[in-house]
Structure formats: structure tokens, C-alpha cells
Amino acid sequence: MEIEKLSGVSEVKFLFEPRSVVLIGSGKIREKVGMTSPWLFENVIHNMNKFFEGKTFVLDIEGERDYDKLDDLPETPDLGVIMLPPKASIEQSERCAKIGVKALVMITGGYKAHNRRQLTGLRRKYGIRILGPNTILGVVNTVNGLNTTFERDVMPKKGNISVISQSGGVGALLLDLACFYDLGISKFAFMGEKIDINDVDLLRYFNEDPETKVICLYMEGVEKGREFVEAAREVVKKKPILALKGGVTKEAARRAKSHTASIAGSDIVFDAAFKKAGIIRVGDAEELLNAAIAFAKQPPLGGDNVAIVSNVGGPAILAADAVVKNGLKLAPLSEKTRRKIESRYLGVEATNPVDLIADARAERYSFVLDLVLSDPNVDGVLVINMLKSCFFEPEDAVAIAEIAKKHSGKPVVDVPAGGEDFTMVYQVLRDTSIPVYNLPEKAVKALKTLRAYHKSVQKAK
Question: Are residues 418 and 274 in the same domain?
Fold first, then answer.
């Protein structure tokens, strides 16, 4: 009797939480055009041996490394990772299914329609769950060290951001950015062609995952739109979902169809679906991670009123423009707040944006930021602290994190505008609860997403 597809998260967990993994590839096969190669195989083996806390078995179908048959393994693995051309992959997939392997990651591509039907047949017959094919990089779980990527020694820092990418390339871009900026990641899933495990399965898993606080989603298309919206609406009640959609234009949509065998659909339809589900849509990959950082570190923005506290005038004006352009408002500081600031610092005019003057150091930032965050007219604060042309030193930024901690219900984002200034302040604040951005406009967009999520949750109540 064929096994029907289940919708629970218990099966999908073996993608991320296997006790043991078998890596199936070849030390000899190298496709003329395709991903299969001894180099890829060796790099995945290297990463798994270096990072994974469970058991790793290596099956070389050429019989020259460790095991050459699944029957030779000392135990049945929970997860199989297959790195072979389509015909050999399907053969090994069926053998895995027959011995009771619970889930498969299909790294390589090149599958035709009949190949995909063969894989879905295995799912129906044996109940095995399948990610891919054409996932390219598979899965990453920083909690247990699971890493099926072939990017040697690449492993992001542990954190609470999880990423679902339909494209291996876009996923690799996000992985690279996460490692470059040392962002805290929980899990990565590269879906590929989604012949079985899809966005809905992964959203439901991440919804129950205690290590995931915010979900980033890159998608090119979806087959079961209604199910996707319903699942996302449930997730958004607990955790924000940030989405980047590829294939927005007709030309790109046609390419997306051949890229990951996706049904791209109308962008207008997707936009409406995202809004109905409470998903927050972003414009590019950097904005996706910028927003994720804000959600990972700060609470939602409970109102539209934003205060700007800066040691420079021009960037503060740019920030003010960005606040208004993004549908937020400049908070009108109370008379009490203005009077206290101006009586202590005679040269400071306490209107929003508050210009602390170029000689402001930690003490001035602490005093003013504490007052501004205490102001009932203020819902969130954007701090600008430039080094060049100012007296501010990188270590002064610690004061911002300390004051923000006292007002944990209101989000605070920091902007050491520029390149070198950003790098130096980021080194000080990277492990604190303060998101750091190199331009005011990026910080405002992050605040905008925090506001959008708060509205979405309130609407759902």
C-alpha cells in the first residue's frame, strides 16, 4: 500500500536533526556538464567530518572509500545526501528508501520530468522525504554542525535567523553575506526543484523550531498557493517571515521556470498573497538580511514615531527624509524631554532629529538616549554615531547598547555611517542586541519592517 504524504513537521526534522548521515557520491565520476565531481564529494565529506556532531558514513559507489554498498553500513542513517548524476541518484535513492532512511538531500541537478516522477514515486511508496533535486548546497544547521555544502570550511555563526532558498545561488549569496557580517544563523535550507519538501513543510518546521526567531524566504514560484498562505498566516502569529521574490518581470519569470522548475505566477498575485499571509516583502538580498538582523535583535516597532539621535547634522537629515519616505513619522519630543536635554547641554537644540554636536561621546549619548527612549511620544530610535569629523570613539558605542537594554520594549538601530566607521563600530556592537547599518536609509527600512510586523500581528488578533 502506498504511503500518503504527511503534512506534519516530524518527518522534516530529519533534514536538520539526523543522528547519522550517509554521504553518497563518487571518487571517480565527473560530469562533463553538471555538479557531480570528486571535488564536490570530498568537500562535503570534509565539512561534515569537521562540523557535524552526529555520525557520518561515506559511501563511494566506485568502492574505493569506506563503504560501497548501503547494506555494509553499521546502522541505518536518518539522512542520505546524494551527489551523483540523475540515473545513479535515483538508484541510490531507492536503496536508501528500502532500508529505512528517513530523508534525502539531492544535491545535483539535470533531472528530466520522468526522473522527477521516479523520485515522487519513491516518496509515495516508502514515505521517505526528499529535498531537491538541484538543491546545490542542501542544508546547514549551526546547532548540531550539519553542513552539506561543498564550500570548504564555511560555517556561519550560531544564531536565530533561518533561511529558506529555492535557489542554490541566491542561498549561497545569503550564506556568504551571513558569514561576511558574522550574522547569527540557525538553519539554511536550499530547496531546489521542490518535488517533495517545499516552502510549506519548512515553514511549519521552523515555526516549531525553538532555535528560529525569524524566517527569511527566497522564492521563485509556488504550486499550492492556498496551502502556502494558510501555513504562513499561522507562522506569522509567532515569528516574522521576510520574503524576497525572484521572477518579478515576465522575462525573469520565464528563466525562473527553467531554473528550478517553478510556477512563477503573476507578481501582483504573489504580492497580494504575501499581504494576506502577513509576510513582509523586501526588495533585495541585502534588505532581506538587514531586516532579519533587526528582528533577531530588537522588538517590533509599536508605533510610527521614530526619534533620531545623531552627532552629525547632514546624515540625520537624510535619516529624517528616509523616515518620512518609508511611511513612518518623526516623533515630536515632549517639552519635558527637550527641556532636560537643553538645560544640560546648552549647545544642543533638542528637536527631532537631535543633533548632539560633533564632540559628543558616550556620556552625552547615554543621557540623551535614555531620555528619548523614556519619552512616551517615541516608539523607536535611530542612532547615528560617526567617527570621522567627530570626537566619537568606537568603544563609546557600548553605551548605546547599555541604554537600549533598559528600554527593551522599543527598538533601537545604530548607524555609524560609512565604510571604515561602520567596520570599527560594528566590531564593538556585533555581539550586542543592537543592529548596525552603514547607511541611514538601510536602518530606516529595517525599522519599517519592524513596524509592518507589529501591524500584522495586531491585525491577526
Answer: no
